[in-house]
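REQUEST ID: PR-0412
SUBMITTED BY: lab tech R.K.
PRIORITY: routine
TASK: structure prediction, single protein chain
INPUT:
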Amino acid sequence: MGFFGGITWAILVARICQLYSNAAPSKIIQKVFFVFLTWKWPAPVVLKQFGCVDSKLGNLVWNPRKNVADRYHLMPILTPAFPEQNSTHNVSKSTLHIRQAKFENFILFDMIQEMKSALEICNRIQEGNATWNDLFEEINFFSRYKHFIALTINEDTNQGFFESKIRQLVQILERNTQVKIAHINPRKLKNIRNESTWFLGLEFTENAKNLDLTSEIEGFKRKMTLQAKGIVQLDATYVKRSDLIKFISVEDLKRGRFVKNKTAVNRKRPTSSRDSTESKKPRVDSTLLKSNIVNQ
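STATUS: complete
OUTPUT:
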């Protein structure tokens, strides 16, 4: 889904253990978030220097000087055994989401924002103002965004295949200059018809309006058609936050800690006497998004 897995976190913890070999476990956890929040990405995280390898096998090793694809990795965290590979090759721009506005401000979200929040909680734990349960509390995905795409597949579709391809939709949406963030919820949910549904949270640029994502959705479906084996049926529906209750249960909608403040990410545009409130809202036509695809 484009987020850190267990191997990646293990490598990060191992690197901190190398740097702070005498630190207590609680300090190790705090340092994981402190060090990698301030890490100069895309500088790679490595546990050991690369050794000499057979020239015939050297192309398997992560090397941005030789491999063009490796140059585009945003957060390289390398496995320590041969062949050294980037364990975060699937981290996308929205997952990292570090953007600079006129070299003055950085908008930090997703992985970086999570590290920042975790570091704050660790600091509060050391001060006695929080517990470890606070650190591991799930964050409510639906409190982060106002716009969503619900991706629903039927029971005959291979869910593992679909999950492996969702990242491609995120990458397609990222190419749209009016899409600031495309963030997939890694938790699969059941809709009111008991169908498997994934939600993709969207945030748009400040000047976005009359936005139509039909071509991006259809492009993703075409890729699914070409790559799928067997029957694939996919519904893609635009959903506003206020309409989520029509798709999922109250329990799923309220699960986890709500994001209290997103003003750093959602800045208001100056109002204009010529602009109505409605015209400033990006339009995503649900009738254009909602369609089926069957590949046999």
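NOTES: The domain at 141-289 is CATH 3.30.70.590 (Alpha-Beta Plaits).
REVIEWED BY: pending
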